[in-house]
Amino acid sequence: MTGFLWFPLIGSVAGFFSGLLGIGGGVLMVPFLIFILPKLGFDHRVYVHSSLATSSACAFFFTLSGTFAHAKHRNVKWNNVPYLGMGAFLGAVVGSTVATHVPGEFIKKLFAVFMLYVAYRLFFRSSAGAGGSFKGEVRVWGKKTFFCIGFVTGVVASFFGIGGGVIAVPVMTFMGFDMREAVGTSTAMIPFTTFSSVLGYVVNGLGNPYLPRYSLGFVYLPAVGLIVPFGVVMAQVGASVAVKVSQTALRKIFACLLVVVAVKILFNL
After folding, report:
1. How many domains does the chain have?
2. FRET pair for 86, CA 20 to 30 Å: which of 69, 157, 200, 266?
3. How far, in Å, CA of 208 to CA of 107, rounded?
4. Mind listing the pLDDT tens digit for each residue in 18-32?
């Protein structure tokens, strides 16, 4: 029963960073779920895939909550969301399907390496563009460009059980988006990614004999039920904080946390 007590804490922390940085929260949820699910009796053949699927399901609700908050602050560029969303939806189908056919231990190590990359980008990312204007160079990017960004984000995000904001936000800031607009628009795209990702994990996990009770495909419903309520509330808090403070220091603290977790996963500490 002790393992279940971690779920509300995971939801609160992941939800806050989801709203604050425009990410799905999976970069925090996945490693913690990978640590906790085996202690709850999950078979070694399915616990990594269940962590990815459960994280995606939670991230869907987090980013829906965060999207409403960012929309209230006018940080979402809705004209680009449909193209990002369509690409992300299709990409997530591909990523989640591939992931269910790859050994869990390999995905776990690959995820740790990916976290180190994300930490590097967060820590050393220039603040250039954070105070820029959406008017100007952003408008030269066409619909196909946003579709391709969404597709690539969807593939990588669903493969690793994350929302995809760690990919989309840096790309959009490079394209000339204001930092807050990049975060808000990324948040609005992620429900497309995570919904499609969850569908893939559910369909590919149905009938798996190694999954425990109360699993819907690879999604572990008790974890979703305990993580989501806290995450949804804290996503609202994170989104509200995002419009009031500089995010440079928070990004660097978050990056350091990712490094610690990635090292623990890589070396089984």
Report:
1. 1
2. 69
3. 19
4. 777 766 677 788 888
